[in-house]
Hints:
The chain is an alpha+beta fold. Helix content is 25%, strand content 25%. A four-stranded antiparallel beta sheet has the order 1-8-3-6. A four-stranded antiparallel beta sheet has the order 2-7-4-5, with no helix packed on it. Strand 4 and strand 5 form a beta hairpin. The model has no long low-confidence stretch (mean pLDDT 81).
Amino acid sequence: MILCMNLVKETYEPNKIIVKEGDTGGCLYILKEGEVDCVLKNQTIRTLSKGESFGEISILLDSPRTMDVIAKTHCVLYSISVDTFRKLVGEMYREIIIYNFITNAFDRSENFGKIEPSLLENTFPTFKVSHYKKHDVVLSAGYQYQSKILILAEGNLLNVNY
């Protein structure tokens, strides 16, 4: 209830930029009504609709916004600043965001979408956030790929061979 009372209602008309790539990320957004396009280099990467959220990556990685988010239709959003979120839930705010990010990634996955939520909750403590620079080796040849799940939050992987 306290969290809901601290959400800020925002409305946007079609084609209005909500988040600009490169800007500092200071809040999370939850889409109540309408649709938004996530755009990178003038290409729509995905469309988000009611109930989905965005803005978590720049907060998790403490980095600038990774893409533009543009209202596709009339939108009603709720936002919460990271400072307010931190005050309400404490210093574990990043872990909460990571858990939601992982849960959403699994929900969208064909392979993992049917995993029982309780199983995911039990395995959550084993997940960790890793940062890689361009050309860093994420997994080397010969690695037993069955023993690790990678969820890509930002960027691209090169030379992926199975």
